[in-house]
Amino acid sequence: MAAEPDTHEHPAHKRHGLEFRARMRFLYHGNTPTAVRFRLAVVIIDLAIIAFFIVAPVLKEQGQTFYIVDYLIAALLAVDLIARITAFSDWKDWFRRPISWVDLVVLVSLLMPAWLINLGFLRILRLWTLLNSDLFWRTVGRKYDDTRVEEVTRAVGNLITFVFVTTGFVYTVFMGRHEGITGYVDALYFTVATLTTTGFGDITLPGAGGRLLSIAVMLVGITLFVRLGQSLLRPRKVSFPCPTCALQKHDLDAVHCKACGTILAIPDDG
């Protein structure tokens, strides 16, 4: 007589999977003290990893130790990404977000440092994904979510990210190929001097490619500075979706929506 198939294994396995998914959703999206502490630990680890990415060009000289740390960080990021995908209501939606693909690019560059060493400068993009994630603002910046503080922080983060991504690119491409770039500090100096359009001229990149890169750095740098200035100086707005046209930002004392004229009932925080 043939043995009957085990009908209990799969339901139990599925139940454990649902419990794990619910646990991850609770930790990544919940508002309890336990969930907040968990996300705070994730943010602190992220900041430590970002600090490692910034100094990585210097640490590469440590040889084997650098690669050990590199793979440990790759394992941490892989676990974090798997947990975030699990916590998402629909994993397909997670893959539709550009910020998710940036995290995947960072992970790939960590998993294959010997083959993708020229893409190592992209790792600092983790700072951009962190400051533009809901996890960060629901954990560290709960009081400042949808405020000017968030706008300024994101603008500063964009500027810092661009500086170090460009520095890493210049260091990777021109180190040893151009006499002006003898180390990471030289690459950082060139980036900042070009970004601010100071143009001392003591370090210039050779060829048409170097000139085009300098032009791109200046144009993007000016745009980022303008964005930062707007965040600091323009009148403060309050986030309150219009019930008719869904316009998100309004003046603090707005009575009517600028777009459609609907009467608003913006709560008075004071």
Number of strands: 2
- Read across the widest sheet, the strand sequence of neighbours is 1-2
What structural category characterises the helix and strand content?
Answer: mainly alpha
CATH topology of the largest domain: Four Helix Bundle (Hemerythrin (Met), subunit A)
Poorly predicted runs of 5 or more residues: none
Q: Helix fraction?
A: 55-70%
Oligomer: single chain
Cα(first) to Cα(last) distance is: 78 Å
Task: Please provide the ordered H/E string of secondary-structure elements.
Answer: HHHHHHHHHHEE
The top-level CATH class of the largest domain is: Mainly Alpha
As for the number of domains, it is: 3
Radius of gyration over C-alpha positions, nearest whole angstrom: 24 Å
Largest sheet: 2 strands, antiparallel
Protein model, in words:
One of its GO terms (biological process) is monoatomic ion transmembrane transport. The chain crosses the membrane at residues 38-59, 65-83, 104-125, 155-174, 212-229. It holds the Pfam family Ion_trans_2. This is Potassium channel family protein. Residues 160-226 form the Potassium channel domain. By secondary structure, the chain is mainly alpha-helical. It has 3 domains: 16-142, Four Helix Bundle (Hemerythrin (Met), subunit A) (Up-down Bundle), CATH 1.20.120; 146-234, Helix Hairpins, CATH 1.10.287; 237-270. Helix content is 63%, strand content 2%. The chain has 10 helices and 2 strands; from the N terminus they run ααααααααααββ. It has a two-stranded antiparallel ribbon with strand order 1-2. Helix 1 crosses helix 3. The longest helix has 27 residues, at 33-59. The protein starts with 8 loop residues before the first helix and ends in a 19-residue tail after the last strand. The mean pLDDT is 77.
